[in-house]
Amino acid sequence: MEAVTASLVLWAKTQALGWLARNWGKLVAAGLAVVGVATFLAVTAVSLVSSNGQVTEAANACTELGYSVDQAAYRPPPVEEKPTVPTGGSVPGFGPDDAAEVANAQAIIAAGGVAGVGRRGLIVAIATALQESGLENVDYGDRDSLGLFQQRPSQGWGTAEQVRDPKFAALAFFGGPTSPHFGHATGKASPGGLLEVSGWSDLPITVAAQSVQRSAFPSAYAKHEERAVVIVDALAGDMTSTTSIGSTSSSGGKQTSHTQQAVTTAAEYRASGVDIDSFCSTEFELASAEGPVAATSGKVVQAGEWTAPIQSQVTSPFGMRFHPIYHESRLHAGTDFHAAVGTSIASPTRGVVDQVGWSSGGGLNVAIAHADGVKTRHLHLSEALVKPGEEVQGGQPIARSGDSGVGTGAHYHFEVHVDGEPIDPEPFMRKHGVNLRAWS
Fold first, then answer.
1. Residue 416 three-state SS
2. Residue 345 and residue 165: Cα distance in Å, rounded?
3. Is residue 381 within 8 Å of residue 364, measured between CB atoms?
4. Is residue 121 a contact partner of residue 129, using CB atoms and an 8 Å limit?
5. Quick check: 378 and 413 in contact, CB under 8 A?
6. What is the pLDDT of residues 224-283, one digit of tens each?
7. Is 269 strand, coil or helix?
8. CA 63 to chain centre
9. Does the pLDDT at position 27 exceed 70?
10. Contacts of residue 406, Cβ cutoff 8 Å, sequence gap at least 6
């Protein structure tokens, strides 16, 4: 019997080794695939949270971690910056020569009725079209932008002819099941419209519109709200009582979407491979600790010394991250701080103003050249207080923070460049005696 058993064991080993010899390549490939999938899921977890409409659920976890959207940091443009509401036309909110604009507004409102976005959605759409095109169906724009909403064919919004069709353009802006870009397999429109923005009906107009448009001037939409309200109330009639699928109702304050998921904790997100901490710091750049935002110390430091350009909470560090607007992994070349519009920004040390300019991503920005090949850049500003060529002292106010350029809201972005290359500001400043996280 022992001899038979030994023979069977030897035969089994031989068969197993033979099978491994024949299939080892497949096993290695399968193992690599599993590792690759796991790595992909970990790297893109933040993307999946955003793209699958789970921002509201993730926000609960962010709240658990101490984050909150600071509405005090959102400030609409001053009254004097708001355009005058035209009068004298056949419809309130329009002038006597605005027949074409009235027709375009009617087309948007009709599309909003089909999409079921209610009064709030109509106001967002009309305000957006007023900013983008003045409600004119234009055949020109930035790069290949066209039509009422300046939608770009190269970005998947449709052909040049389609985006200049008011009904097509408006349905694309609203998104959801009636969008020409809706995918039944995914259950959402791509490019995404207003209905793809989680909690859009509770957002300020400038934030809701920017979430769809990705404009270089994200705060510009708010100034058209007053006129948009007049136009919608004049043209929409009874359809403004409609509430969109998945929007926030006026009575309950909770989402009515049948796809709403249960609250997921931060621990559960981490256990599933989602870097919820990075998600919160990027998605909620207005998040701050309890208490008001501190400005600079206002103290001018001696030559050679360094000081923090702002005394506030760090909301997003230097390094690779999933960009909350462009939805791709890219280098975040500086450190972000919580800062309401108008917060004072100081020069971190003595230097000469190298540039005061504008970029589509960074908005209004100031660059200062310091000693030893060091340059600091200050982005997303609302006002520059210095001019190129001007010598500044450490601690001297050089600008006021804002929300210009591309971003999810008002904040301050600080960069340090050495010999032309961006480096992490936090360790650099620590070497110079400044802890940028002292107020976090």
1. strand
2. 45
3. yes
4. no
5. yes
6. 999 999 999 999 975 554 333 333 333 333 333 323 333 456 666 666 555 666 655 555
7. helix
8. 18
9. no
10. 214, 216, 218, 325, 326, 360, 361, 362, 363
CB 330 within 8 A of CB 323: yes
Cβ neighbourhood burial of 160 (10 Å; 0-12, 13-18, 19+): middle
Domain 285-431 has CATH 2.70.70.10: yes
CA distances from residue 261 to 47, 52, 69, 184, 319 in whole angstroms, order as listed? 18, 11, 21, 20, 32
How far apart CA 10 and CA 7 sit, in angstroms, is 5
What are the φ/ψ torsions at residue 151 (nearest 5 degrees)? -85, 145
Q: What would you report as the CA-atom Rg of the chain, rounded to the nearest whole angstrom?
A: 27
pLDDT digits (tens, 9 = 90+) for 315-330: 889 988 776 655 667 7
pTM exceeds 0.90 for this model = no
Residue of 407, 305, 395 whose CA lies nearest to 359: 407
Helices (H), 44-69: 45-51, 55-64
Q: Minimal CA–CA distance to 296: which of 417, 414, 427?
A: 414
Domain ranges of the chain: 50-241, 285-431
Cα separation, 88 vs 291, whole angstroms: 48
* 182 DSSP 8-state letter: E
Confirm if 307 and 395 have CB atoms less than 8 A apart: yes
Are 360 and 404 in contact by the 8 Å Cβ rule? The answer is no
Of residues 276, 335, 323, 306, the one with CA closest to residue 45: 276
Tokens representing residue 197 in the block? 């923005």
- Within 8 A by CB and 6+ apart from 47, the residues are 322, 327
Under 8 Å between Cβ of 234 and 92: yes
d(CA 132, CA 123): 14
Enter the tokens of residue 243: 């509430």
Q: Tokens for 439?
A: 């107020």
Q: How far apart are CA 142 and CA 150, in angstroms?
A: 8
Compute the distance between CA of residue 361 and CA of residue 75 in angstroms, rounded to an integer: 20
10 Å Cβ neighbour count for 342? 15
Distance, in Å, from the CA atom of 426 to the CA atom of 433, rounded to the nearest integer, reads 11
Helix extents (H) in 89-134: 99-115, 118-133
Task: Tell me the C-alpha distance between 344 and 325, whole Å.
Answer: 26
Length of the chain, in residues: 440
Helix, strand, coil % over all residues of the chain, rounded to 5: 40, 15, 45
CA distance 124 to 172: 14
Nearest to 69 by CA among 284, 340, 356: 284
